[in-house]
Amino acid sequence: MKNTILVTGGAGFIGSHLVEALAKEESSTIIVFDNLSTGCLENIPSQENILFMKGNVDSEVDVAHLFRSFSFDYIYHLAAVASVSESVQQPLATHRVNMDGTIYLLEFARAQEKKVRKFVFASSAAVYGVEPTLPKTENSLIDPITPYGIDKYASEKYVTSYSNLYGLNVAVARFFNVYGPRQNPASPYSGVLSILTEVTQQVNRGEAAVFQIFGDGEQVRDFVFVEDIVQGLILLGRKVESQANTYNIASGEKHSLRDIIATYETLLDMMVPVAYNEKRPGDIKYSYASIEKIKKLGYQPKFSISQGLEKYMENI
Ligand code: UD2
What we know:
CATH class of the largest domain: Alpha Beta
Distance between the termini: 34 Å
Strand content: 15-25%
Bound molecules: uridine-diphosphate-N-acetylgalactosamine
CATH superfamily of the largest domain: NAD(P)-binding Rossmann-like Domain
CATH architecture of the largest domain: 3-Layer(aba) Sandwich
Oligomer: single chain
Structural class: alpha/beta
Shape: globular
């Protein structure tokens, strides 16, 4: 079927993988809407059925131009300031993107003449905050502790309210710790596996690099390979049952940082030099997801941590 699909943030780490997967359906046209603040054009495959439009989700003018130019069957809203630390330092600026940006898109989506088949919103495990009950299910206590998490949760509520108020077809995804090719290791708050990967590359080039562990390395996360995130997002887009529902997207596996370092050492046949530092303030010791709800839609993670890391290593 011929579909026009919008991916906001489509030049970024997760968005570009989604674009690549959606564009395999040759009859679909993918519109990438991105301001290239952290994403880049090289992330997007050059294909006839992928079009790029530069713009800001928090600019009414830019979003109006987008919806004047195209009429969408599906919308995947991934554009955001993804850095939690930036949201703490710049709450107003990140709020404009992470919250107002969502409302602009919802407003134009509901006003569009053609009915949107699904508006999928990318939220985060950050909405659960530090409350310790595990695993996190979609009904776990919500208690975000940063502007980033608060804006993600408020956006989730906006998205589902547009289903109640205007009959917009919507679904919400909560990502756990995503990793994979094209994740940028530049900031100390980048995904830990992008930093660890960079350190192993530096060591292999003979450079003096040390991976800094914050805390004792026994912190546990649910690391999910980016292609499994894409699988989950596409399911939420396609399945009618996801209507007005919220889903964790994760691997359902839990690993400590020390286990992961050992997996790198086996895969790369090397020793990773590490140094131990004070744990980060506010760091959560254990975080992992229940994925039972999204499994009912047919989701099945395809990558164990070692399979995901192997594919990651092959693609950097
Ligand atoms: C993740 C998300 C964040 C938010 C949060 C909600 C990422 C990149 N971040 O933060 O956006 O949703 O979950 O709970 O997905 N670490 C090291 N050395 C390093 C970097 C990190 O030891 O060089 C530790 C860090 O202290 C933490 C763990 O590794 O214990 C994972 O860190 P992270 O920044 O990848 O992700 P997290 O879970 O803090």
